């Protein structure tokens, strides 16, 4: 009789993951996040009604549209620091975690401030007007980051090696702890996201004041 081929189920998943290119992995991650975002919106509709769900989806789409600039800047940062492709996901993972924490603090403070001082709406409106002016002024994004304020400041105050050491952020060089370019890249990305958050968070306050909806829509949009 012909011997039957056997398959070790435990090796199938690692083999499939190993065969996936970084592009395939990124597409799968985006698809999973979008599906999770939609399912979360549906759960809000079932629990709190269509109006709350509409606020969530409006906030999610608003943040997604405003995040396009973030993506462009991140690509420029990776290109400027020549970050190897296999390390970019590590930087983005830490960057997203930091962005979520900062935005959560900003949203909580923003909601509390608006509830106590309605005049703060004027300040947020001024931020949105200034952001709109920058958008319609037609200024091109910086393609050369060598003169970027955030990049220059980080390079000035953070001692950095001139080479990568795997996916490490810090290494001990001659008894002195120094950052690798990977950590510098992470810091620049974090500070860039903070700058974008100052523009985008006030916009979503015009859609809803519910901190859970604001935070959840932000988390799904930047993930």
TrEMBL record:
Membrane topology recorded in Swiss-Prot or TrEMBL: Multi-pass membrane protein
Spans traversing the lipid bilayer: 26-46, 58-79, 91-113
Subcellular location: Membrane
Keyword Membrane tagged: yes
Keyword annotations of the record: Membrane, Transmembrane, Transmembrane helix
Major site of localization recorded for this protein: membrane
Presence of the UniProt keyword Transmembrane in the record: yes
One GO cellular component, as annotated: membrane
Annotated protein name in UniProt: Uncharacterized protein
């Amino acid at each position: 009789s012909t011997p039957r081929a056997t398959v070790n189920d435990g090796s199938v998943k690692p083999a499939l993951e190993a065969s996936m290119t970084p592009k395939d992995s990124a597409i799968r991650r985006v698809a999973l996040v979008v599906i999770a975002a939609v399912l979360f919106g549906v759960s809000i509709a079932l629990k709190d009604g269509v109006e709350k769900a509409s606020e969530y989806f409006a906030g999610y789409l608003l943040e997604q549209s405003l995040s396009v600039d973030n993506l462009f800047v991140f690509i420029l940062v990776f290109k400027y620091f020549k970050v190897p492709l296999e390390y970019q996901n590590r930087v983005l993972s830490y960057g997203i975690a930091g962005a979520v924490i900062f935005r959560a603090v900003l949203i909580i403070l923003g909601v509390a401030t608006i509830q106590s001082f309605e005049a703060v709406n004027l300040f947020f409106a001024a931020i949105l007007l200034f952001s709109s002016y920058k958008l319609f002024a037609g200024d091109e994004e910086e393609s050369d980051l060598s003169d970027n304020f955030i990049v220059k400041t980080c390079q000035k105050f953070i001692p950095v090696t001139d080479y990568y050491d795997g996916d490490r952020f810090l290494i001990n060089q001659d008894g002195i702890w120094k950052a690798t370019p990977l950590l510098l890249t992470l810091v620049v990305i974090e500070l860039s996201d903070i700058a974008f958050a100052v523009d985008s968070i006030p916009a979503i306050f015009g859609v809803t004041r519910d901190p859970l909806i604001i935070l959840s829509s932000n988390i799904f949009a930047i993930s």
